[in-house]
Design a protein that fits this description.
The structure holds three protein chains of three kinds. By secondary structure, chain A is mainly alpha-helical. Chain A is built from 14 helices and no strands. Chain A has one domain: MetI-like fold. In chain A, helix 7 crosses helix 8 (182-220) and helix 10 runs antiparallel to helix 13. The radius of gyration of chain A is 24 Å and the shape is globular. In chain B, helix 4 packs across helix 10 (217-240), helix 5 (129-144) runs antiparallel to helix 7 and helix 7 packs antiparallel against helix 10 (217-240). Chain B is mainly alpha-helical. Chain B is elongated. The two termini of chain B are 41 Å apart. By secondary structure, chain C is an alpha/beta fold. Chain C has 15 helices and twelve strands. The chains are: A mainly alpha, B mainly alpha, C alpha/beta. Chain A: The chain crosses the membrane at residues 9-30, 102-123, 135-152, 190-208, 243-268, 291-319. Chain A: It holds the Pfam family BPD_transp_1. Chain A: Residues 96-312 form the ABC transmembrane type-1 domain.
């Protein structure tokens, strides 16, 4: 099992390298990163431009530039950013923390909701409550993330106006200045998290609750659940101990894999709520043709995908004795 | 009697109904099951209505999406059912036009990604071995490419014409389809009738196009349908970030994005195009659900 | 044997399922009595309603099923009893063994846990006591090193061993009735005898009555006291095991016997006599005997009137056939065409295939 996982991870390394190469070419093709500098009024001196070009290795041919970058990464150097005051390594690390905080809480919330709703839906298949939950799940599946986020933001503003106090924050991941001690800090952070978390969580909830429902139905129709009932166990025990416990195995894997996707997918939520996370970092970097910054983003995401694949496999082994004993 | 295969006893008379049930064509069965799915049928009607409204209504409506009227920033009225924006555009006409574009883009994406993904997945799953490994690694590579970066680069390079936006998204989405199709083909190729066909000397191409793809059609159709809904959302998200359809053309995502700052002052600009996106994506998702049930009714079967 | 009290009385049981294509009438009036310590074999093809009958007895049919008639356990009616009450009987006084041991155990719990769970569902004992009982039961089922094996998961057992675990679970609470639904069908021929022996051990140890459902007359021959033959949701013949084997009074039973390869009584080398055609759809049954279309003996009356099971000359032997009296002393090859027969002959014998318009 573990050797299989490790082999899969090794195979993914060349894929990631190829991916960085393709993305590098794309961003390079996108245009001149110094266009902004050159377009300034009054125009900067040729020396200034030459210095910038040298700093960004723009005086080298593209292939050599890529080589410079990848050998640098091996040494822990992520290369120069177009933005002179930004160290890509530090910036990505800080952004990663912000995004992770958002995604982790959202995933937890979505998972709990999805499991509860999926189980109720499956147990009461084709009842009114099942149809209601199904509609809600499809509604969130069909909601454009930015529209929903803006909607929530509007709701937050109305709520604040109604209460005459800033209860939930609609902009940023934290206030610039917070007065008071650790509690005030924590309350401030939490207040900023409420809306983005809900926005991100409900979108995942749609797909996950459907998945949990299907997985639960599968198990509920299995022979061993019938046999558990034939033993005379209570309905509750059959549903929780036999059906839910087994139906959670595929759900866990899906959640772990989607976790990684969400880290790269929080772009919209971060943009709407103006969080300085990885998503916003990517948008800015792409807009500035900051090739090395985009590549750093790609690496972080790739590593996250690998790590969560590993976590998914380990969880699977932990939960399913059939895998554990292989 | 020249056919010796007829030697097997004929189905007896009372078994006729059973035989008739079995003989009813797969397509008819799927259609019957789909028609029983009320939400799916309602959604199909709704979707067709919205599409008709967008394509035919756009031409018939008294304003063109590009018309600039004297009414500026008007709330909804009989004259302008969805109101007007700050330049005097009729929002209803714009929403119709945006719907048209968004649906066109989504359908084109689903068609292209479905076609490429099906062929890719079928060949990969059928040949297995090194061919499969290489093809799937390429699909993996495509899945790692950030849509945002790719779209940003390519859209800028081409001024964001709608079909190019579709092309870019399809270029990344086919990999999902190929994975699904490969999975189905991997299990199908072990079936006896494929073995039999191969033993009879059928060529690989024949087996793939005559046996594997037709038998994988159920999951393919379901996945491509859901891809249409996903494509609508991806396109609108890209347009929202300014990386999709570019003005003066418009799409639902672009309309919402332009209205983002006006949401508290002129909410109609924001709510109407957004609601259209939700209705379209929602109805397609329900259609997909109905198709899934129709193609694979195992979850509905009562145990006996 | 016949003096003993009836533990389970099934009377005119009917079960139907509403489906997309209409009402499937899976069971159409089954009646039998099961006496203490007795083994009743229920035989029939898949779809004959034999499994549905036992699921109805267990109260395990889906909510959509429409159930009629009566099932009495020690005189107490079970049909329509709320699930909460049924639960106290299920696994306690009526236990069940399912067909496929590969799927009837939960993959994520140890076999010891799963047996102990059945014990604790019906007895107020500690977890340790239940475990101890599980180990005892595994030992009784001849699982080697039961104490260690109790800590293993189902996937670490072979099919035959898993079925013995299932049987151990079924007998955990000394039930009065054990229903075994095709307990050997999913297993290799080599372990079938082993599992049948385990079932007999379980039955003897608990003095339970047993319903042994199978499509294999060979299995029933060695294990059952009485046999009920089912076809298209109806009992078509009921009698002592010898009556059924030596003086069958229903062409279908005769056909089943004729399809059974026999190596025992010197009939080696005889041709098999298969039954032509397939069972009818339960969706819309024609009037008349459901077996008529496949029956070489059919007459006009068979197409119009469905025969009721009636007593034959042997005591306790019922058969549902208009011509059961004519079958006295007939052997399968007297009624059915042997499989070696020329197809052309066969077609000529079969009027359904003969008269082309």
């Amino acid at each position: 099992m573990l050797t299989y996982t490790l082999r899969r991870l090794l195979v993914s390394i060349p894929v990631i390298v190829a991916s960085t190469f393709v993305v590098f070419l794309l961003v390079t093709m996108a245009g001149d990163p110094l266009a902004g500098l050159k377009g300034r009024n009054p125009p900067p001196s040729p020396q200034v431009i030459a210095v910038e070009e040298q700093r960004l290795h723009l005086d080298e041919p593209p292939l050599q530039r890529y080589w410079t970058w990848i050998t640098g990464v091996a040494r822990g150097d992520f290369g120069p950013s177009v933005r002179t005051n930004v160290d890509i390594g530090h910036e990505v690390a800080a952004r990663f923390g912000v995004t992770l905080r958002l995604v982790a809480v959202a995933v937890l919330l979505a998972l709990v909701l999805a499991v509860v709703v999926g189980v109720i839906s499956a147990v009461k298949q084709y009842s009114g409550i099942d149809y209601g939950f199904t509609f809600a799940a499809f509604l969130f599946l069909s909601m454009p993330s930015f529209w929903f986020a803006v909607l929530l933001k509007q709701g937050g503003i109305s709520l604040n106006n109604l209460l005459g106090d800033q209860v939930v924050y609609t902009i940023g991941d934290r206030s610039v200045i917070v007065e008071g001690g650790a509690w005030a800090q924590l309350a401030d952070t939490a207040g900023h998290m409420v809306l983005p978390t809900i926005s991100l969580a409900l979108l995942s909830f749609g797909a996950w609750s459907r998945f949990q429902r299907a997985s639960m139905l599968d198990v509920l129709n299995s022979d061993y659940v019938l046999f558990a009932r034939a033993k005379g166990l209570s309905r509750r025990r059959v549903i929780v101990r036999h059906a839910l416990r087994t139906a959670l195995i595929p759900m866990t894997t899906v959640t772990a894999l989607d976790f990684a996707t969400l880290i790269s997918g929080a772009v919209i939520t971060e943009t709407v709520f103006q969080w300085r996370g990885l998503g916003e970092f990517l948008v800015t970097s792409v807009n500035q043709r900051d090739a090395y910054a985009v590549l750093a983003w790609l690496l972080v995401i790739a590593v996250a995908v690998i790590v969560f694949n590993l976590i998914a496999d380990l969880l699977y082994a932990l939960l399913d004795p059939r895998i554990r004993h292989e | 009697m020249s056919e010796h295969t007829e030697a097997a006893p004929r189905p007896p008379s009372s078994a006729q109904p059973a035989a008739a049930v079995r003989r009813r064509s797969q397509g008819e069965l799927v259609l019957r099951r789909f028609l029983r799915h009320k939400a799916a049928v309602t959604s199909l009607v709704l979707f067709v209505a919205v599409v008709l409204l967008a394509f035919a209504g756009g031409a018939l409506w008294r304003y063109d999406y590009a018309d600039i009227t004297s009414a500026v920033s008007q709330p909804p009225s009989l004259e302008h059912p969805f109101g007007t924006d700050n330049l005097g555009h009729d929002t209803f006409a714009q929403v119709l036009r945006g719907t048209q574009r968004s649906v066109e883009i989504a359908l084109l994406i689903a068609f292209l990604a479905g076609l490429v993904g099906t062929l890719w997945g079928a060949f990969s799953g059928y040949y297995r071995g090194i061919t499969d490994s290489v093809m799937m690694r390429i699909a993996d590579l495509v899945l790692t490419l950030p849509l945002l970066a790719v779209a940003a680069v390519l859209t800028r390079a081409t001024n964001g014409s709608w079909w190019f936006v579709a092309l870019v998204i399809a270029a990344l989405q086919w990999a999902y389809v190929s994975r699904v199709v490969r999975g189905v083909v991997l299990s199908l190729r072990e079936k006896e009738y494929i073995e039999a066909s191969r033993a009879l000397g059928a060529t690989d191409r024949w087996i793939i196009f005559r046996h594997l793809i037709p038998n994988a059609l159920g999951p393919i159709i379901v996945n491509v349908t859901i891809l249409v809904a996903a494509a609508i959302l991806v396109e609108t998200a890209l347009s929202f970030l300014g990386l999709g359809v570019q003005p003066p053309d418009t799409s639902l995502g672009l309309l919402v994005s332009e209205a983002d700052t006006a949401v508290s002052t002129r909410p109609w600009l924001f709510y109407f195009p957004g609601a259209f996106i939700v209705v379209i994506a929602l109805s397609i998702n329900f259609i997909g659900d109905g198709l899934r049930d129709a193609f694979d009714p195992t979850q509905r079967k009562a145990r006996s | 044997m016949s003096e003993r009290e009836a533990v389970l009385q099934v009377e005119n049981l009917t079960v139907s399922f509403p489906t997309e294509d209409g009402l499937v009438r899976a069971v159409r009036g089954v009646s039998y009595e099961l006496r203490r310590g007795e083994v009743l074999g229920i035989v029939g093809e898949s779809g004959s309603g034999k499994s549905v009958t036992s699921m109805a007895v267990m109260g395990l049919l889906p909510a959509s099923a429409r159930i009629g008639g009566s099932v009495r356990f020690h005189g107490q009616e079970l049909i329509g009893v709320p699930d909460k009450r049924m639960r106290t009987l299920r696994g306690g006084r009526i236990a069940m063994v399912f067909q496929d041991p590969m799927t009837s155990l939960n993959p994520v719990y140890t076999v010891g846990d799963q047996i102990a769970e059945a014990v604790r569902a019906h007895n107020d004992v500690s977890a340790a006591q239940a475990r101890e009982r599980a180990v005892e039961l595994l030992a009784l089922m001849q699982i080697p090193r039961p104490r260690e094996r109790a800590r293993d998961y189902p996937h670490q057992f072979s099919g035959g061993m898993r079925q013995r675990v299932v049987i151990a679970t079924a007998m955990a609470n000394s039930p009065d009735v054990i229903i075994a639904d095709e307990p050997t069908t999913a297993l290799d021929v080599t372990v079938q005898a082993q599992v049948l022996r385990a079932l007999e051990t379980a039955r003897a140890a608990t003095d339970a009555a047993m319903v042994l459902i199978t499509h294999d007359l060979g299995v029933v021959a060695g294990a059952a006291d009485r046999v009920l033959v089912m076809y298209a949701g109806r009992p078509v013949e009921l009698g002592g095991v010898d009556d059924i084997y030596y003086t069958p009074r229903m062409p279908y039973t005769l056909g089943l016997l004729g399809s059974l390869p026999r190596l025992d009584d010197g009939r080696r080398g005889e041709r098999l006599t298969p039954i032509a055609g397939s069972p009818p759809s339960l969706l819309d049954l024609p009037p008349g005997c459901p077996f008529a279309p496949r029956c070489p003996m059919r007459q006009e009356v068979c197409e119009t009137a469905e025969p009721e099971p009636v007593a034959t000359s042997e005591p306790g032997h019922l058969a549902a056939c208009h011509f059961s009296a004519d079958l006295d002393g007939k052997r399968p090859e007297d009624v059915f065409v042997t499989s070696s027969g020329d197809p052309a002959d066969h077609a000529a014998d079969d009027p359904a295939a003969g008269g082309a318009p």
